[in-house]
Amino acid sequence: MTYSDVLTAAREALSGVCAVCPVCDGKACRGQIPGVGGKGSGRAFTVCREFLDRVTLNMDVIHPHFEADTSVELFGRKFAYPFFAAPIGGMKLNYGGLLSESDYVQAVVDGTRAAGTFAWTGDGPDESIFQTTLPLIEAAGGAAVPTIKPWAQEKCLERIRELEDAGAMAFAMDVDSAALINLKLMGKPVFTKSTEELRELVEAAKVPFVVKGVMTPAAALRCAEAGCYGIVVSSHGGRVMEDAPAPASRLREIRKAVGASLKIFVDGGVRSGADVFKCLALGADAVLVGRPYAIAAFGGGAEGVQLLTEKLGAELAETMLMTGCRSLEEISESCLEIG
Ligand SMILES: Cc1cc2nc3c(=O)[nH]c(=O)nc-3n(C[C@H](O)[C@H](O)[C@H](O)COP(=O)(O)O)c2cc1C
């Protein structure tokens, strides 16, 4: 199977749900929630690609030849690449139930692991969405990041105990779900979280905690104050607030504010190894990729996910060679221009 076969199969399997566009940019699926699109006009999704397309890279090949080292250390473990499958939940609601929740999670957990990385898994209004992930995370030796919704504190504490029992190496919370349409439609209460509430979760957990859905330096500083391991600069793929900017455009300001006190992940419109490079140059430690991983799983299961990971990894290594960066630490703002 080639990656092109994966896309062809996905286009057929996802007919009527996702057009599997040549570049997944949020235009064909504007407003499709439930579904795969961005909220309302869809501009919080389309702006992600528009921003990354404005960033160009400074080519420099006057240096001794090298094999770029793309590896990264996170959560005390080493991974082949600094990009991971973002949590995607709600297979029935968003993808028409073409894959079960557990088949989807199995494909992304196994496929990313086979390529030397890992997947973040999702949560949702139906209790089974979170529960099906637990045995799969356990079977993967804990190499996954379950991402829980911002439920009431007591329910979050329960979730933390469950994911720790499954051996998860870390966990995240998509705090930007506080007003998610899908959850509202199902009558499931979710809440914003104060610094004190985040601190309570950090203190209750034995594993690192990452807050997903942070878009300002001030909110990032509150996460640092609460003792979080990291943040995901994310607008939930443009699905929660129509007027959100491209998360990557916020990176430099957020990194400047928090320094090295937090690991910074980012997502939204990342579609190539060069995009991963751009995000690292703008200040991220690592990157999440959402919809393309779902497309890969629908088109080729775990093998499709592995192929996508290896394709992005090869593109990243090539970009590092072409910009003279031997390791991720050498990637800096001086490698890019913003037009
Ligand atoms: C259909 C769909 C379902 C999603 N479900 C979740 C989820 O359960 N939890 C979560 O934290 N993020 C969820 N996300 C957001 C992604 O994790 C990620 O932030 C976003 O898709 C990144 O943008 P990209 O798809 O442009 O790469 C979902 C996104 C989509 C498109």
Task: Explain this structure.
The protein has helices at 3-13, 43-54, 91-95, 101-114, 127-131, 133-139, 153-165, 181-185, 195-204, 217-225, 251-258, 273-281, 291-323; strands at 55-57, 72-74, 77-79, 83-85, 119-121, 144-148, 171-174, 209-212, 230-233, 263-267, 286-289, 336-338. With 339 residues, it is an alpha/beta fold. The protein is built from 13 helices and 12 strands. It has a single domain (3-338), classed as Aldolase class I (TIM Barrel, Alpha-Beta Barrel), CATH 3.20.20.70. The strands form 3 sheets. The protein has an 8-stranded parallel sheet. A two-stranded antiparallel sheet has the order 1-12. The N and C termini lie far apart (38 Å). It is globular and about 60 Å long. It is 42% helix and 13% strand. Helix 7 (153-165) links the parallel strand 6 and strand 7 (171-174). The structure holds flavin mononucleotide. The site of flavin mononucleotide has 25 residues, from loops.
Strand content is 5-15%
Remind me, CATH topology?
Answer: TIM Barrel
Q: What is the class in the CATH system?
A: Alpha Beta
How are the strands of the largest sheet arranged?
A: 4-11-10-9-8-7-6-5
Tell me how many strands there are.
12
Count of domain modules? 1
Largest β-sheet summary: 8 strands, parallel
Fraction of residues in H or I helices: 40-55%
Considering the protein shown, what is the CATH homologous superfamily? Aldolase class I
Average pLDDT, to the nearest integer? 97
First-last Cα distance: 38 Å
Secondary-structure element order, N to C:
HHEEEEHHEHHEHEHHEHEHEHEHE
Structural class: alpha/beta
General form = globular
Q: What ligands can be seen in this structure?
A: flavin mononucleotide
Uncertain ranges: none
Please identify, by name, the CATH architecture. Answer: Alpha-Beta Barrel
